[in-house]
Amino acid sequence: MEAIAEALISEAAAKLKTVSERFGLEGEEQNEARELLAEALGRELLPGEAVTAAVRRRFQRLIGRRMTGEPLEFITGRVRFAGRELKIRPGMFIPRVTSEFLASQAVRRLRGRRLPAHVDVATGIGPVALTVALGVPHARVWGLDISQKAVNQAAANARRLGAENASFRRSDLFARLPDKLWGQVDVVTIHPPYVPSAMVADLPAEIRKFEPRHTLTDGSRDGFGLVRRVIDEGRGWIRPGGWLLIEIMPSESRRIRSLLKAGGYGDVRSTHGEYRETRVVTGRR
């Protein structure tokens, strides 16, 4: 027996609302239900479309997964970033829309340079690195991450998007960058795992249960262990006049500015884009 798609979406959205309220993520239930029904169909919905019983069963299974708190991106296997679709799998860090500003700040600083080099640390599935690579085609872009699984997915996304100037490596910070880049990098970006170790348990279940712990915290008491290393180790890789850009919570921007100044960086500023949930703190070598 067929069912009208819109009725199924409304029914599912009502179920999802109870979950969204529990996770503090209200407002997207209707859109999520629509996207999951399209996933069950394998294509976009048509106006007034009726769906078969088999599709309805697939849809109900997907809604069931979402109601456990599993992120929509893991269920569909895709996430949008800066207008592009990236593939993602469970067990990876989901790119945040706030990081689009981080990428745009890197692009702005690279476009006017001759054969610039950009390094994105803790790159995950590559959203920032790929946005830069496609936005500055003459740049050499390197994405580094400690997770081989994430690096493999980033490389697959690069192939799919045709970002031939982007390379990805499993690396503990800068350890596996080519030696020829020493002192030659124009911009380093990082959206670090800045949650203090004791506060991970306070994160929404949707995040702490499904995203890898190492992408949320570096294990330090204040959440700045990795940031300190990037500031220190980055000095040798960044060319004079180059930039280090760090995405961080607004409440921590003053502390990061102090660390950058103490580390010998100049032109230290806290900037923000359309979304003010995070800041990008900038420092010049």
Essential attributes:
alpha/beta, 285 residues, two-stranded antiparallel ribbon, seven-stranded mixed sheet
Can you summarize this structure?
The protein has helices at about 5-25, 30-40, 55-65, 70-75, 100-110, 125-135, 150-160, 205-210, 225-235, 255-260, and strands spanning about 5, 50, 80, 85, 115-120, 140-145, 165-170, 185-190, 240-250, 265-270, 280-285. It contains ten helices and eleven strands.
CATH topology of the largest domain: Rossmann fold
Please give the domain count: 2
Largest sheet: 7 strands, mixed
Calculate Rg over CA atoms: 21 Å
How many runs of DSSP E, i.e. beta strands? Answer: 11
End-to-end distance:
66 Å
Strand neighbour order, sheet with most strands: 7-6-5-8-9-11-10
Number of helices: 10
Q: Which band does the percent of strand residues land in? A: 15-25%
Shape: elongated
CATH class of the largest domain: Alpha Beta
Average pLDDT reading: 91
Question: H/E element string?
Answer: EHHEHHEEHEHEHEEHHEHEE
CATH superfamily of the largest domain: Vaccinia Virus protein VP39
Given the helix and strand composition, which structural class is it?
alpha/beta
The amount of helix comes to: 40-55%
CATH architecture of the largest domain: 3-Layer(aba) Sandwich
Poorly predicted runs of 5 or more residues: none
